[in-house]
Amino acid sequence: MDKFLGDDDKTAQFEAMAMPHLDAAYNLARWLTRNEHDADDLVQSAYLRAFRFADGFRGGDVRAWLLTIVRHTYYSALRDGAALRGDVSFDEALHGDDASTDPAAIAASRDTGRSVNAALAQLPQAFREVLVLKEMDDLSYKQIAQVTETPIGTVMSRLARARKLLLSYLKDGGQDGF
């Protein structure tokens, strides 16, 4: 019976530690896989892996630790030939800001959102990854370096290049094609 109480305690501790970061994990998974359903599967696999190895977490930044696991789970699946494939564009109706009820403003916002998402999708994986982690998940350079396992200087360089490519793509209307 004590064994089961220990399992409940471990589950409760893990939930308290990991669940606040579920949105960030899904956001990263969504941009890695480019598909909502594959992102769900990736987050589920990553959280299962994180739960299994939660005893090995030695403190520090929980969000960075979880996002590292999401990233490793994705790249392990690619390496093992079980690539999570698909390409579903970001759905502004689901994730957009409903603050405006002006149809023209909504249409303009959706067009801008689609343009940005299309541009993001065209970025090379390493650039898209750091841009999503910085701009959408609001991670620090140090956290991004931890998640991507690259030096902070590389993170800063990739982020600057990603922003430049994204801006170029948006200005050219997708004519460069990366």
From TrEMBL:
Q: Which UniProt keywords apply?
A: DNA-binding, Sigma factor, Transcription, Transcription regulation
Which Pfam families does the annotation name? Sigma70_r2, Sigma70_r4_2
Residues forming the RNA polymerase sigma factor 70 region 4 type domain are: 116-166
Top-level taxon of origin: Bacteria
Matching PROSITE patterns, A to Z? SIGMA70_ECF
| UniProt-recorded Gene Ontology molecular function terms | DNA binding; sigma factor activity
Q: Does the keyword Acetylation apply?
A: no
- BP-aspect Gene Ontology terms: DNA-templated transcription initiation
The RNA polymerase sigma-70 region domain sits at 20-80
Family to which this protein belongs: Belongs to the sigma-70 factor family. ECF subfamily.
- Could you tell me which NCBIfam families the record lists for this protein? sigma70-ECF
What is this protein's record name?
RNA polymerase sigma factor
